[in-house]
Design brief:
Elements (H helix, E strand, L loop, with lengths): L18 H7 L11 E10 L2 E6 L3 E6 L1 H5 L1 H6 L5 E8 L7 E4 H19 L3 E9 L2 E6 L2 E6 L16 H9 L5 E10 L4 E5 L6 H7 L7 E10 L2 E7 L2 E6 L20 E10 L2 E5 L20 E10 L2 E7 L2 E6 L6 H7 L5 E10 L4 E6 L8
Parallel strand pairs: 3-5, 13-15, 18-20
Antiparallel strand pairs: 1-2, 1-4, 2-3, 4-5, 6-7, 6-9, 7-8, 9-10, 11-12, 11-14, 12-13, 14-15, 16-17, 16-19, 17-18, 19-20
Length: 373
Amino acid sequence: MTTEISTPAKEKEEKKPTLMDNLFKTATFNVPKVDDLVEGTIVGQRGMVVYVDVAPLGTGLIYGREFMNVQDTMKVLKIGDKITVKITELKNEQDYLSLSLKDANQEIIWREVEKYQKDKAPLEIKVTDANKGGLIIDFKGIPGFLPTSQLKPEHYPRIEDGDQAKILEKLKELVGNTLIATIITVDSKEDKLIFSEKGIQTEEAKEMISKYNVGDIIDGEVTGIVDFGVFLKVEEGLEGLVHISELDWALVEDPKKLFSVGDKVKAKIITIKDGKISLSIKTLKPSPWDGIKDKHKQGDIVKGIIIKFNKHGALASIEEGVAGLVHISEFESEGQMKEKLELGKAYDFQITVFEPNEQKLTLRYLDPNKKTA
C-alpha cells in the first residue's frame, strides 16, 4: 500500500478542527459513540499508522496493535478505498479518533451470522478439528462448534460399545471436510456459535420423505446402534431413528442387547418433522398396559421387582413392561431408599395412582418393619 499522506499539508501550522468542531457544523448528525461502526476513506499511511477520513467526524487512525492485527489486509488496500471501522476511542493523545478494522470486520460477520440463524440458511462450514463432544468449525474466521448430537445420521459415530476414544477417532475422520449446516445458537458476547446438520434436506431427500406418512409400517434394517436408540434404513439413502423409549414396552437399558446391525425389523412411523423420520417398534406389539386395565386398581397391594433407580426414586415392575415409581420422598434419603430396596428383589407395594390409559402408575413401599395402623 502506498505511503502517500493526504492529511492536511499544514497540519502542524494550522489548528486542526476537533471532533466537536466537526459535529457542531452538522446539526443533524448523531453524536458517535465508542463501539459504533462508521464508514471511512483511506487517505494515507505513514509507517504503521493508517489515516482514515471519517466525514464529518474528521480523521481517525488505525495504529499500534490495531495495525498489527490487520497487516495482511492493509497490503491489499490503497488510498481512496472505503472501509468500515469501529470507533475504539473518540479522542486519542493526538486528538484523532482511534479506529479498529479488525473489530469492525468481526462485528459485521457476527451480524451476518445472526441473519443466517434467523433465515435458517444452509451454510458451507469447514471442519478444522474434533473433540469428544463434536466438531470444531471455522466460519469466516470465527470458531464454531457442531455437537455430536447435531450430526446427521451418516456422520454420527456409531460405536456400539460407546468407547469415547473410538468415538473421537471416528469424529476425526471428518476433519478437513466441508459440511452443510445451519446455525442454531449465536452469542457474540460469549463468542458462541453452534451449528447443526439436522434439518438440512436435499431435494432428493425431500422427495423420498414425501412418499411416507405418519402411521405407515416399514420394513427396516438396523444400520446403527447408539446409547439413545437404533437407526433403521427405511430405503437406500433414507434412515429413521427408533428412540430407546420406542424399542420395547419393557425398560431398555442397552439397545445392543436387543438388536444387531443388519437385523431386519418392522417399525411404525410416528413422526415426520424437519426432514427426520421417527419410528417405533414397540407400538407394533400388544401393550402390556391394555392387559392389566381390569386386573388392578388404586389401593391394591402388589408385588414389584426393583428394576432401576433414578433421581425421582425407584422403578418397580409389577408386570412385564409395566413399572411404577416409588418416590424418593417416602424415604429419609437416597441412601436409605437403596438400603431398603435392592435391584432385582421383589417387595410389597400399594398402588397409589393407577391410570393405564395414560400409562401412569405410582407405588408406596410397604415396609415390613413398620406396623400399619
